[in-house]
Amino acid sequence: MEISTAQKIVKEHLEKIGYTKIETEPMHAFLHLIEEVGETARTLLYKETPRGTIKNTTDPGNLKDEVADIFWQTLKLAIYLDINLEKAFIEKYEKNLKKSH
Ligand SMILES: [Mg+2]
Predict the structure, then answer these.
(1) Which residues contact 80 (CB under 8 A, 6 or more apart)?
(2) CATH number at residue 25
(3) Distance 36 CA to ligand 1 centre (A)
(4) Which residues, other chains included, contact 50 with Cβ-Cβ below 8 Å and sequence gap of 6+?
(5) What is the pTM of this model?
(6) Mean pLDDT value across the chain
(7) Ligand 1 centre from 96 Cα, in Å?
(8) Closest C-alpha to 73, from 39, 32, 40, 15
(9) How far, in Å, is the centroid of ligand 1 from the Cα of 93?
């Protein structure tokens, strides 16, 4: 799947559930992205460090799911900011290539 297709799927989903009428500001999408980054951090802490031996009150998420959540929220943020993430990614990749040579 191409990034533009994934971004279209997220946009259509948000519109279908009426989410875009409830939360419309890029700040909302950004906060949800940070929330997912935090969930990933929590999952890593409990699965990959000695902290995992401490009894947790809530279940840490599945790492694969959490990383997918970050991608979802990144796509959502790009939608709210009116950024074509596939195009932006390619442009940024080309800039990085020039920097490394
Ligand atoms: Mg999550």
Answers:
(1) 24, 25, 26, 28, 29
(2) 1.10.287.1080
(3) 5
(4) none
(5) 0.86
(6) 90
(7) 30
(8) 32
(9) 27
d(CA 62, CA 73): 16
CB atoms within 10 A of CB 75: 24
Position 54 confidence tier, pLDDT thresholds 50, 70, 90: low
- Mean per-residue pLDDT, 51-69: 77
Contact criterion met (CB below 8 Å) for 78 and 85: yes
59-63 — which CB contacts under 8 Å span 24+ positions? none
Render pLDDT for 19-52 as a digit per residue (tens, 0 to 9). Answer: 888 888 999 999 999 999 999 988 888 877 776 6
Q: Which residues sit with Cβ closer than 5 angstroms to ligand 1, an ion?
A: 36, 39, 66, 69
pLDDT of residue 30: 97
* Tally of domains within the chain: 1
- Containing domain of residue 95, as a range? 3-99
